[in-house]
Design a protein that fits this description.
The chain is of the alpha+beta class. Among the domains are: 140 residues, Roll (Ubiquitin-like (UB roll)), CATH 3.10.20; 29 residues, no CATH class. It has 10 helices and 5 strands. Strands 2-1-5-3-4 form a 5-stranded mixed β-sheet. Helix 9 crosses helix 10. It is globular and about 80 Å long. The two termini are 17 Å apart. The model has no long low-confidence stretch (mean pLDDT 82). The chain binds FE2/S2 (inorganic) cluster (FES) (2 copies). One FE2/S2 (inorganic) cluster binds next to loops. It comes from Mus musculus (Mouse). It is an enzyme of class 1 (oxidoreductase). It catalyses: an aldehyde + O2 + H2O = a carboxylate + H2O2 + H(+). This is aldehyde oxidase. InterPro entries: 2Fe-2S-bd, 2Fe-2S-bd_dom_sf, 2Fe-2S_ferredoxin-like_sf, 2Fe-2S_ferredoxin-type, 2Fe2S_fd_BS, Ald_Oxase/xanthine_DH-like, Beta-grasp_dom_sf.
Length: 270
């Protein structure tokens, strides 16, 4: 394939699979692309304007300068696919399924009665999932903030928030104070217990634990491409080559290859 053709390619990953689009339409958004082009219909179309959060997915990027992978949630209806070059997209299908194994977030929302019609559930799941990728032991405040952009029209927010709070190491909710016991079941609350109903939503010990080692890894191919791009940026910014002679040799070799490649692309684009 000629370099000029390669430069027209939009490359990103969806749930660990490489997607290559030649001559991508800049007006197409990620939600349309997921649902109509690659037929991943788990991501829902609600408002189409970034308000309801039903279309939430996780987008990951590798920063070659800091060598860190960042994960952030995004409403797919507002993301043009052309902005995704070099990114990895994770949808609700990518984190777990009833055919293989459901993810702890999916399990806890289901067992915690956090879903009725289920329309908002994929978006809720992906918002919580993204939070857990960044903070495996989130605080209650982080959970409230992360769900701030997701609307639910039928369940009510309590079971959804309570399900998510089961990932907190400590919680303000009595049923999740470490032992999975409800305060209404304790002896000291005997008088209140007679007049009250235990509002416990689930047994925490039934849940599978969150295991961050089981998550999808960032595609290594994208790390290599981003690394090359970062190298070009360093070279452009006049960063000094490394002091070690071997590294210095690699630096100039890579710089030469990169400049040669860029020059070839410029010639072909005329
Ligand atoms: S469909 Fe409502 S935020 Fe995207
Ligand atoms: S469960 Fe129906 S919209 Fe949330």
């Amino acid at each position: 394939m000629s370099p000029s053709k390669e430069s027209d390619e939009l490359i990103f990953f969806v749930n660990g699979k490489k997607v290559t689009e030649r001559n991508a339409d800049p007006e197409v958004n990620l939600l349309f692309y997921l649902r109509k082009v690659i037929r991943l219909t788990g991501t829902k179309y609600g408002c189409g304007g970034g308000d309801c959060g039903a279309c939430t997915v996780m987008i990951s990027r590798y920063d070659p300068i800091s060598k860190r992978i960042s994960h952030f949630s995004a409403t797919a209806c507002l993301v043009p696919i052309c902005s995704l070059h070099g990114a990895a997209v994770t949808t609700v299908e990518g984190i777990g399924s009833t055919k293989t194994r459901i993810h702890p977030v999916q399990e806890r929302i289901a067992k915690g009665h956090g879903t009725q019609c289920g329309f908002c559930t994929p978006g809720m799941v992906m918002s919580i999932y993204t939070l857990l990728r960044n903070h495996p032991e989130p605080s209650t405040e982080q959970i409230m903030e992360t769900l701030g952009g997701n609307l639910c029209r039928c369940t009510g927010y309590r079971p959804i928030v309570e399900s998510a709070k089961s990932f907190c190491p400590s919680s303000t909710c009595c049923q999740m104070n470490g032992e999975g016991k409800c305060c209404l079941d304790e002896e000291k609350n005997e008088p209140e217990r007679k007049n009250s109903v235990c509002t416990k939503l689930y047994e925490k010990k039934e849940f599978q634990p969150l295991d961050p080692t089981q998550e999808l890894i960032f595609p290594p191919e994208l790390m290599v491409c981003s690394g090359l791009f970062g190298f070009m940026m360093l070279a452009r910014e006049g960063t000094h080559p490394p002091a070690c002679p071997q590294l210095c040799l690699c630096f100039y070799l890579l710089l030469w290859v990169t400049l040669y490649y860029v020059a070839l692309q410029s010639i072909h684009s005329f």
